[in-house]
Amino acid sequence: MKTESKLMRYLVPSVLILIGAGFIVYGATDGEAAAVIKKAIAICMECIGLG
Amino acid sequence: MKKIILWLFGLDEAALADPATLAGVIASFVMIAAVLVMFAVLLAKKRLRIHRWGNKVWQRTKLLIQSGFFILTNSFMVGWFKGTIYQGKLKFMCVPGMNCYSCPGAWGACPIGAMQAIFDEFDAKKSWFDPVSGTYVQAPLYWIAFYVIGILMIIGALCGRLVCGLLCPFGWVQDLIYKIPVKKLKLPREPRLIEKTKNPRATRFLLGLDKYARLLKYAFLIVMAVFLPLMVKANPWFCKYICPSGMLLGGIPLMSMNAGLAAAAGKLTLQKILILAFIVILSLFIYRPFCRYICPLGAIYSFFNKFSLYKYGIDDSKCNRCKGCSACANSCPMGVDPVKDPNSPECIRCGTCNAKCPQKAIHAGFRTKTPEGSAIRTRKSK
Ligand code: SF4
Ligand code: SF4
């Protein structure tokens, strides 16, 4: 029977979470979060089928 | 306190003088409080222990969680009352599911829309040869959407496609439509059952078609949500030409409340309404057609099922599949066999197999061992 070792079971997702957090910080400081909010606070004409 | 509320709602003091806005703010608080109480009750009653309660109770619990999460993330009631959208500071955050940021109640941004918004930014100082138009245009500012990928990585590494099963509003809508009692197109998986169907050849053909059509969602992700938005500016391709969630949660409510927007409806509106209608009709007969074949967000989360903290697993010491039970595989609405692959990319972690297993051999959660001490297998069976 193939069972995952405890280390792999928890290590891989934990590393992914840490890398994800790093990406968020990097992206946000690079102006990506600003691009998101700029788009999200105006009615998106393309999304609602008008644009 | 008032200042915080105004900041949270993205309103100014004068806006509260309008009775509809004030009613919207109060209604938002009431709805959020009601949902939080409901979640607390579900937790207190231990209703999340899926196999303790059986499938009937679990399906009801699941519906409550889905509805509750929809209300929680779409309870900007000012938008619903006035036909506008939320414009406050919280909107830089992405919600986990396909939830259009132009939904009048949405507090957060849709990750797929947000990703395309980032790709849509261009570098004012740099131009490059655009292979699509054949001319020199301004180059994309971001080639990788780190911010959104980071958010999706964290959500995916925590729970994988549990988002699809329990938290996504468009998944919830398809679940509700599938509840309408008409004859369903459900294909058997096991060779023994396939041979028993009226036309085994046709069944095998449909099974093959379903298997390969599921790959389409990866093509939608790569082409419509990444490649084209990067290459052709001012066009969030997936949102603009396909997304039925945007039409249902954003387009229809806004246009029905806002005459100006309704007057602007045209060919594209019709195209998107037809796509939505097609998905709705298909959802009557097939379980979650959008999630199976189209959704780019589901495609992203599917990579995380095998690497998430929350996982499905099998207690092989209890599973008596050898006796030909297979209640799990036969009940899975996504056509997955959880004993063969408990963390299949197609599994949306809806819990149906878990609730139906008479042996209580399926486990969902963070453990590596059952409370009785047997090992939980999270990998594919040999
Ligand atoms: S596949 Fe897409 S639409 Fe379906 S539940 Fe998952 S995120 Fe939502
Ligand atoms: S394998 Fe189980 S949890 Fe996964 S989709 Fe099928 S029934 Fe739902």
What does this structure look like?
The complex is a heterodimer of chains A (51) and B (382). Chain A is built from 2 helices and no strands. Chain A has helices spanning 6-29, 32-40. The longest helix of chain A has 24 residues, at 6-29. Chain A has one domain (2-47). Chain B is mainly α and 382 residues long. Chain B has 2 domains: 85-309, no CATH class; 311-382, Alpha-Beta Plaits. Chain B has helices at 2-9, 19-44, 50-73, 77-82, 111-119, 146-159, 162-167, 169-178, 191-196, 200-213, 216-231, 237-241, 244-257, 259-263, 267-285, 289-293, 296-302, 327-331, 352-356; strands spanning 122-130, 135-140, 311-314, 362-365. In chain B, strands 1-2 form a two-stranded antiparallel ribbon. In chain B, α11 (216-231) packs across α17 (296-302). The longest helix of chain B has 26 residues, at 19-44. Chain B starts with a helix and ends in a 17-residue tail after the last strand. In chain B, 44% of the residues are buried. Chains A and B meet through α1 and α2 of A and α5, α6, α13 and α15 of B. One iron/sulfur cluster binds next to α8, α16 and α17 of chain B.
> Helical stretch count of chain B?
19
Helix content of chain B: 40-55%
Distance between the termini of chain A: 55 Å
| Unreliable residue stretches of chain A | none
Rg of chain B, Å, rounded: 23 Å
On the 0-100 scale, what is the average pLDDT of chain A?
Answer: 91
Number of domains of chain A: 1
Anisotropy-based shape of chain B: globular
